[in-house]
Design a protein that fits this description.
heterodimer, A: 373 residues, Glucose Oxidase, domain 1, OB fold (Dihydrolipoamide Acetyltransferase, E2P), 3 domains, 11-stranded mixed beta sheet, 5-stranded antiparallel beta sheet, 4 helices, 41% strand, B: 602 residues, alpha/beta, Rossmann fold, 8-stranded mixed beta sheet, 5-stranded mixed beta sheet, 18 helices
Amino acid sequence: MAHAYTPGLRITDHARIRRERRLPLKGTVLSAVGERVAAEQVVARCDLPGNVQTLNLAARLALDPARVPPALLLPIGTAVRKDQPIASARALFGLVRNTITAPTDGTIESVSNVSGQLIFREPPIPVEVTAYVEGVVQEVLPKEGVIVETEAAFLQGIFGIGGETWGEIAAAVERPGDDLTESRLRPEHRGKIVVGGAHVSFSALMRARELGIAGVVVGGFDDQDLRQLLGRDLGVAITGSEELGITLVLTEGFGRIRMSDRAWSLLARFAGRAASMSGATQIRAGVMRPEILIPHAESGAGSGTAADGGLEIGSLLRVIREPHFGRIGRVTELPSELQALESEARVRVLVVEFTAGGERAVVPRANVERIAD
Amino acid sequence: MPPPEDVRSILATDCGSTTTKAILIEKRGDEYRLVVRGEAPTTVEAPFEDVTRGVLNAVREVEELAGRKILDGDRILSPERNGEGVDLYVSTSSAGGGLQMMVSGLVLQMTGESAQRAALGAGAIVMDVIALNDGRRTHEKIRRLRSLRPDMILLSGGTDGGDVKRVAEIAEMLVAADPKARLGAGYELPVIYAGNRDAAAIVSERLAQRTALTIVDNLRPTLDRENLGPARDAIHELFMEHVMAHAPGYKKLMTWTPVPIMPTPGAVGLIIEAVARQDQLAVVGVDIGGATTDVFSVFGGVFNRTVSANLGMSYSISNVMAEAGIENILRWVPFEVDEATLRNRIKNKMIRPTTVPQTLEDLVIEQAIAREALRLAFEQHRTLAVGLKGVQTERTISDIMHQTASGSSLVDLATLDLLIGSGGVLSHAPRRVQAALMMIDAFLPEGLTELAVDSIFMAPQLGVLSTVHEPAATQVFHRDCLIRLGSVLAPTGPGKAGQPCVTVEVSAPGSPTADRRVPFGELALLPLPAEGRAHLVAAPERGFDVGAGKGRPLEAEIRGGVCGLIVDARGRHPFTLPTETSERIAKLRGWNRALGMYAREV
């Protein structure tokens, strides 16, 4: 392939970020353009149509379906209370009157003269959308939501679980290679986004939840622990809607993997600042990665350093697959011909010189991600 | 479009969810041949959001490789003039997640299943099948209809002249759910009604105001007849009109080609069907991708396709583990692996789906996962590729002796002639014999079956080409697309490890005759010429059947292939692997040695 992208997650201490906050259905927008909003502030609201119940009136009233509509006691569209009579008909040669009552509060939506079914809709379910991140409303999407813009430090993780949350950044370990153990978690971490190092275990994560910690950011987590947490094997990587009581973002992957220096130094630098965090991940077309946003107004010295673009001699990179998984180094050669790997597959490769140790290795180009200097 | 006989050059693209592939075909003498292939990342996502960027990039690579001008700026030159441009341009697409549908019928096993077959045959991913007897309560079905956002819905139900009331019930359920389309919040959801014609007026009354309703002929006009054509055609038409038109850049792409853009799997199905029809073969084709695995079959002239939406080798790799169970993956690995490590490795592939195995051990693990993905996809296919259910069949004495109840699977491995594999893990396996054994282990063919792989996955482009130029499509398919691996001969019947099972003799012009006695429980490889044909004589021991009856010898002319003839005497019904770890590892290593699977022992 002449055109190739090198994967790279965005980590930057200053960026202008926009987040669309849209309702699932049309409703009311509560904020105006230019308004400064807090992360937890509700910016739009709507009512989802209530659940539907079907009542087989033809069977229950012993009527031919064509005679069901006249048996209704109230017009279509009427709101009724639970147990209020809604349809009635005489049975047994007119000796007995059968009456059907509303199964719950709701509205009579429709009735069919073909199937004899009545569609009954339960009360609407209110839905609110928050601003998620502190910032300014840049645009109002009429009846649908807003676009909030903020200037923030921004970090994308590789995988996450749990929904949107907010809290102050707090480092609970000293170094990016440390593990976040139960003993490092303290009551004062309540409501905060706690930064660990290389790994968090299932028991430590449960302890964090007990303490009321809003979110945890670490390098790695074990799949066995993920299974225990979710109660099932995660098949397809579409996450974010789990109700776990805590949000987890992994910066590196599965297993024990030292958090990258870049992620670590950014989070450490902004310790004590308020941040927004989402675990939502979707690894499909339209890739969505989990994120941490730390709003701040200072213009960053090294701002906007996303690690995109092609690889060149001297590019700093990290290997993202065995046998050198997690190691960092610089490109020393970029041979154009395909080369055979140990697996005998012929692919495009590069030669990397590892920062720690200085030895060199041949690695498929598909197995590295470029990281910013 | 020029008349087929005047077409000298053809450009065909397939816009996949991650890669756009372009091929250039030229007429050389009397035959059409593949000239070059180019590829580029698909550009339906931000920042490009225009599929034609990826198409142009892939075509530019074709231009460079072929040394021929095809583009004039951002335009495909057509027709060909003075060696520049092409006479015909065609394209398929699965970008943006392909075509996602919900289908419904009255009875799950009858019209529900027919509707599912129509949608799958048209190249769709079926998100759910709603039926009156699907075990869910009405409000649960309504909630489901509302929560999924399909590209379109196929509504069937009832035979012509049958029940109207039940069809109305399903239409009313749809009205109550008021489902929204996946793309474009502002447009109406396309709904196709292909049910009882007597209920068409009621369905129209209920749905015409709320959806983009199309009414076509009933897909199950009588219990014993399926008529899937009109529904499939309507799906293709609506796919173009609604789904493609809302995907970024497709409106422009549609103006570049005189032939409708097809969903990728629909196109692959067409070429497989064409090959089976041309050579009167029973064919199974499988395409294992990163997110999905498609299985196609033609048995007794009946075409079936299924898609396993969450079985694949990158995006869906973790779901293969979830569905198959880790122990089923580990059973194919000829060394000990710690479960926790394997789990983390699989998840790391899922979150970084474009990485490739570097070590031999890593490759072996990926190939173990592929076996399970293929096996599960094929199991799903067998349950859907069935005869019509609910049909009263008149049975003759011979039917009773050889019972084929209605609703039984049409897939009969004993009559399978050709098994074709496609997708990265099969097409790009470092040794072709690895692809052969992965397919054998997953599908467990019986008797004599030919094996092939799609060299560079160009079946989609050839499928859409077959709709306007079948000779060009099938010529390129046979000569440039298929790589003939050879055949597998698998005796069926019970046996004990080491007991005599089958004696095989292969002779080919210009080569010495090769013969081998293969005991039960073993694999053996006999060479075949890469091209041309060879004569096979297989003499099974008493109790074993190689396709001619128990203990009866089989003589056949077989096609050559790059791997040879694999004799698989490991047993069928059941095929088992030792449960004890060291014994299992020793067996797997022995089989790998017998076929020359890897450069060293793993």
